[in-house]
Amino acid sequence: MNAPDFFDGGRRLRNSGDDPMPSVRNRAIPLNGFWRRVPASLMVVAALASSFIPTARAADNPAKELQAQFEAAKASLAAGDLASAESHYIDAIVLGLRQLAKISLSLGQTDKAATYLESALRLKPDDVETQLDAAGVWFRNGQVAKAKTLLKSLVATQPSHARARGLLGRIYVFEGDSDNAIQELKASVDLEDDFETGYFLGIAYLKASKLAEASAWFHQLQSTMGESAALHMLFGRAYLVAKIPQQAIPEFRQAIRLDPKYPRAHGFLGYAYLEHYQEEGYPQARQEFEKEVKLHPDEYQVQELLGIANVNLRDFPAAEVALLHAARLRPKEASVYLYLGETYAATNRIKAAVEVLEKYVSMVGNPEEDKLREASRAYYLLGQNLRRLGREEEARKALARSQQIREAKFKYDVKHIFDEKKSSEDAGESRVSDRVADLLGAGSAEEKQGTQNMIQQGLPVGPVGKQPATAKETAAAKQYRSFVGEILGSSYNDLGVMRAKDSKFPEAAEFFRQAAAWKPDLPGLDLNWGFASFRAELYLEAVPPLGLSYSMLEKDEKVVEVLHPFLDHPPDDAGLLLAWGTALVRTRQPGAAAGIFRRLLEQNADNPSVHLLLGKAYAQQEDYASAVNELSNASRLDPRLPEAHYYAGLVYLRQKEFESAAREFRAELDLRPGDLHTLYHLGYTLLLQGQLPESISLLREAVKAMPDYELAHFELGRALLQQGDAAGAIESLERAKKLAPEHDAVYFQLSQAYRRAGRVQEAGQAVAAYQKLIEANRLKKRESLEMDKP
Fold first, then answer.
1. Are residues 347 and 295 in the same domain?
2. Across the chain, what does the average pLDDT equal?
3. What are phi and psi of 537, to 5 degrees?
4. What is the domain range of residue 390?
5. Is 231 domain-assigned?
6. Domain check: are 195 and 158 in the same one?
7. Mean of pLDDT values over 539-567
8. What is the pLDDT of residue 24?
9. In angstroms, how far apart are the furthest CA atoms of the chain?
């Protein structure tokens, strides 16, 4: 079993807590609600890799490591060492689940990652690395108390575990417990030099108002890492996190000096100017935002902030350009329409102002607490502009709504005035003007928490550039998932067999159930699962796998026998119902089959795939009218469903309705232009209709793509013979004869082609061979019939 090269470089799979540059791609690092998706490109990656990532060894390659555990289990099983085999199988499953969790984290699928890790812990609850992986995922999912409890118990028993202490320290930073955060993070760094943990230690110093210690620590990190723009960007962002913008400004300036085109450097510097200088900072901030959008014009937040800065500076033409660009980049972001409305109103384009302001209030709906101030302003502007258009009643409602939201904001502020805040930036507030504060406080729910989100997610990795709203799984990741799934399925299955041999049938059934979740097509699995469930007296669980197992073996009588007790109350599984109904048809019980198919359709009336499966089942039983009806329903429910038109074409072909068959095959090719079997059948259908030129063209395409497809060569030979191309026909038919020497019709067509080419002797030989095969086939058929007699 060869693994795809998904984890590049053979790097050891680690959780983000112990990898200085975790391999989770495109992670969001919101800062004070500002950059809603701000991954740092970290050009220090090379330095980090050389300083903190061990040199790749065979054991560091996750695929090889997983394969080695699986093969060790197989070897122990073959040697009869069952205890060792079980241990290796469990280790293989736990490792595979951890690797899948890592991939899921890279796609932002934290719930799926947690499921994988919790499954691993059920199998091996004392595995420390899995415990740490799970704690990290729980932390990211907001289950802070659960993660903290586990980590504190680990640190108590293993105080020298750097990763455990580092992750616990980050939780303390998250909770605002700076003293404990510093203690744990410092202990972690002392145990294992790790840049990410060291960086969060610097943030913990800043959170504790220990500016001198933080500055000295960052200087030490710089001495270790060397001078780079990326490093100064991180330092600047740490100072912004701690609300010390005057310290952030020189860091961003230094980053720009080292690399004038470093992504987002000008944008962060502009933001730092606004944080530090307030209203007076708009001219400088605008200059930096303009520099950023020249370098990266599709950076949404910078375009919007540039627009807001221009609104504040009363440069409305420039504001409009930036805001419209931002709206094109993210048309579903509401805030930009508020500032566009203000821009249009200031330039006396009242109808346009009303239009975008109405769009804003429609998108916001009932505003959350962080949107109250912005929404109140939007309704106020909308009311004023509606009044200017003479729409007095609508204006009155909008202004009343503005007042209502403003009062709600006041009540909320009064209610929470004495609340203990983790940090000022977490409230989404800013010392800059209300307009910028509203933008900085906006964002999706998971991105509002600024520092907290960065502490939970860790530092990002990967190139800076346009980031997708959601990460997409690559082909390599899918291939690796499949590779791991095969190992997990086989491992669970073998563990189930071992438990079954020990007569531990409930445990065996559970292992088989897990195997089916990962590799349902594993040979013999359904039968194993069914029998183990039956012996464990889990009868309801036993029936489906046994029924499907017999169905795959085409033991229709057994399928009917096993499922008969459920005839009055059939199960809901669509695949099982289809197998059952098909078995009933084949065993000549059409009444019972009709009931099963009726239930299948009742539960899946709008499922095109079920109609497709039913159509194929009816076609196999030569019930062509029902087949056409179901296949038509499938295409109606999903006009782009693959294979529905193809099978409809085959049904029409069987009924010699060639025009309808050709129409369906052409419809299939519209959906799947390169499907070779559809090409062949369309070519064959056109041949039967006498449309030789197009038929020959399609059949040539089919044999070119499928050189070993005997039928395509045969039909091409027939078509060429009908067209009068004896030489071409002979070439195709001889190829067909070579591929299928017992196909009698090939010899008959060859005899015709040889005769037309004047090759009389070869024609006679072909006729003789044809007659010999016809007689041999007749005798075989007679012998078969005699053997079937009672």
1. no
2. 77
3. 65, 30
4. 334-416
5. yes
6. yes
7. 47
8. 23
9. 108
